[in-house]
Protein: Sigma factor SigB regulation protein RsbQ
Amino acid sequence: MDILKRNNVNIIGKGTQVIMFAHGFGCDQVMWRYITPAFEEDYKLVLFDYVGCGKSDIGQYNEDRYGSLHGYAQDILEICNVLNLKNIILVGHSVSSMIGMIASIQQPELFRSLILVCPSPCYINKPGYIGGFEEKDLQGLMEVMENNYVGWASFLAPVVMKNTERPELVEELEESFCSMDKEITGNFAKVTFFSDNREDLPKVQIPSLILQCTNDDIAGEEVGAYVQDNLRNSVIQHMKATGHCPHMSHPEETITCIQQYLQNEGTLI
Structure:
């Protein structure tokens, strides 16, 4: 199997220190395009698409493998191993924060740090934990997705993106949702929204930066605080950026937060 083709892996940049960008649910590597130019001069950037997303090899999709986030974490590890990557800074958006954490727990020696963009270990409200959603509401969203996929996409995109004064961003996210295989995206949605990775947080051994947006309806501030409280050697940056996709809606602030963290080796000014 050609892993690099399977995940449409692209490598850019002039440096040697690796930054790997892992996209969120319903997205692909193209959505990092506002961020990557700021790092190309000094870093080696690795971008990829999960199987079923972007320009990945959809023929490699396996429902059993990708029936949990561990299958997606295995993709990351296989890419790292086939490219012989070490000392990796992994930037994961949304669900990729948890996927990246799982990968780092399995092979901590590969990673230098995690940058978690809008992370949530569990989207469902539980006793003593506020994830932001009731389980029945997410079940309802899955039913809408199954019965009216286009309607689901047009509802979810503005909730995720916010920043409606820039409708082109909402449209891009909606088009991204609609461009992907309905069945695969439905499976990925269930794995994303119904996973509970709270017990994984204390297992992470490497330093982490949490980027917490304002008015994020998908991963609110209480979720970010929970992640920080349970993730050793982590710092949290509260951003002015609104919504759930700051790398698209507020790239300059996102770049600044990442650069400050890397320059200060894990401590924010």
Observations:
- The two ends are 45 Å apart (CA to CA).
- The first helix runs from residue 3 to 6.
- The domain at 3-263 is CATH 3.40.50.1820 (Rossmann fold).
- The CA atoms of residues 216 and 243 lie 4 Å apart.
